[in-house]
Design brief:
globular; TATA-Binding Protein; alpha+beta; about 30% strand; 5-stranded antiparallel sheet; about 40% helix
Length: about 100
């Protein structure tokens, strides 16, 4: 089961990468048991991957678009809509700069 998001942006890619790193640090501090710090890593300058709790995902920062794909384990199927809404809200918060949630 996959969640795929493509979101337009007008930010400098370096700024967007900094915001994503800050958001990962936020979630690591807020919920250390999730293991965000160890699950999230940059595999190239503009691509990050994560593996946690049976799921995997990646994101790519393009010049004007961010692509995100998450593959959820079967047991997460009942929560797909909720997880997709959460990911979309997080992505939009990062893109808009509204990170104080």
């Amino acid at each position: 089961m996959k969640i795929h998001l493509e979101l337009a942006h007008s930010l400098d890619r370096g700024e967007l990468k900094r915001r994503l790193e800050a958001r990962a640090a936020h979630w690591h501090e807020k919920k250390p048991a999730l293991g965000v710090a160890s699950a999230f890593r940059w595999t190239s300058e503009w691509r990050a991957e994560a593996h946690a709790r049976g799921g995997t995902g990646w994101l790519e920062i393009g010049d004007s678009q961010v692509r995100l794909e998450v593959v959820l384990p079967f047991v997460a199927r009942p929560f797909r809509a909720r997880l997709e809404a959460f990911l979309r809200a997080e992505a939009e918060a990062v893109l808009s700069g509204e990170l104080d949630r």
